Input
Amino acid sequence: MALNLPQISLSVSIKNSLLTSVFLLLAILGGVSVMATMRLSALQDAVEAINRDRLPKIHALGDLNVSIAHAHLVAIRAALSTAPEPRAEAEGELKRRIVEVQAKIASFRETIGSDAPMKMAFDQFVHKWDLYLKQQAVMLEPEVGANRERLEHVVNVQAPPIFQAVVDAIGHSLKLADHRADSAIESATLDAQLFRIVLWSVNGVSVLIGLATLLFVIHDVSMPIFRITRSMEAIAKGELQTEIPYADHTNELGLMARALAVFRKSLVENERLNAATRTLSELSEWLQSAKSEPELYQMISTVLGGLMPECTGALYIYADSRDVLEVAAEWNGTSTTRSLHPDDCWSLRRGHVYIHGTNEVEFRCDHVHGDVDENYCCIPILAHGETVGLLHVEYNHQGEETEAEAKARFADRARLGLACAEHLSIAIANIKLREGLRDQSLRDALTGLNNRRCLIETARRQLLRASRSRTPVSIVTLDIDHFKSFNDNHGHEAGDTVLRHVGEILKTGFSGDDLPCRLGGEEFVVVMPNCGIEEAALRAEELRARVEALNISYGDGMLPRVTVSVGVAAYPEAGMDLTEILRVADGALYRAKQKGRNRVELASGGMVPPIDEVTDRAVAALDAIVARAETRPIATSPSPSTPSAVRSN
Output
């Protein structure tokens, strides 16, 4: 009898070994066969009962859970949509999904029958689902959507606990169904164990007769199966690096080993995808917590680099001009293309995702260089129905992969990229909305300067910093002389034109830590940290000279000459807080008005800069203005004049 025939079919080897003892064991095996038939019938009945009664319920509950999650995501999207068309589309999809969920609830209720525990658990779920629908209706109310803070509170604070209660309730039903199935499986397992005991008893009677067969089975069947089973158990416990024996055999053991190797590879991939799914769920929460766009893009770069380690990627965002996209984030390498035109990418031109390397007919994007692998995808980032950016992912082919394996893995990465794009679009839209609202709250719409609110917030911080470091802070207040005459004689649009020109001079003349602001009407304020009152007076004189040199074209003619009166005060001499310093600076400004306007006055106690130095710097500023005027026809064209002297009280 051959004992070691690993390359021969196991079925043939077992048949040859059993022929010598088949007649002697016929009677015993007949009895065992009857028992086996009975036991197998019982096991079959148990399996059929599980498949018939338990598994459909588990599948139905799982499907219902997924549908509820989709409905919740669509509800959030509808609530956050501000444009009418995307919101109407999202609300329509939400209604369809709610109808689908209600249909599944009704269908599952019919399958419960007289199962009282399941009926009670499902009724609790239905009750919590009804509560969630009420909360969802509140989320979608127009009044809530109009109030951004209330909307964020409803979406981020009120809705999640109610939705989680729904998920927990359906999870309880799933656990109950799983418990029923586990009980049936445990019962079948006990029957199988009992049957095994009986078999071992019968085998004890025929051990001498079947010794040779037993040796063969142990050596060439039982031991290999045991080793493969041990590998299976280790893999099931998560030890995915376990060695799989007999993979090089050509018999049934080799087939089993190779099938197990394929299964292990699938488990590794599924584990990675599950981890990616969990990370995406956490990513959404983190992205919503970003304070600024740079912080958001840094988070995106870090997370996506870990999610797709075999991919090089970049996130492009539209510039303000909307004619070019620039790199905002990149991972696993530096992007060769730092900026691209919308026409350079097929996904932007066609308006949907473009996956290159998987179709019969395809063309490379112009922004993709020749050294990039053919497997790449471009995913538009949409926010409120508008394309705000592009997610570009390039797959780096690994040498040990076959072409088919690389295609399959790239397809998974493309699907993962699509899932990421949905989270990124919401986060980018939110951060842009927040920054836009903040910018509107801190900017003057007419001149583009900072407004009173920004002045108060920033000046408070600068004064606190100055008190700690014992450094000066100067405050310059200026008022356009005879501004009412511009409105009365030429109209309010002419007055607005004057304000814009003065605001432009303030923006170009003060930068860095300086803070030019429009206080209201024709009044402006400049906060200059680390600047003494003498230097502030010189810069105020330059400002006055540049304003005086303005020639403003309006309509078919030119507006009258524009002049300003300026007052300068400094911390800590003028006071310890912004209100007191502004009051002192305003006093100096009023003195400038009383002394004939178009002049700079210092607060009481300030030092007067040398007249020659003031004149030289003012003339230099006027020369620079003249040079710019020669290159811009509509720009200012000053006539040199000696600036007024800087005076103190």
User: Anything to note?
Assistant: DSSP finds 17 helices and 14 strands in the chain. The first helix runs from residue 10 to 18.
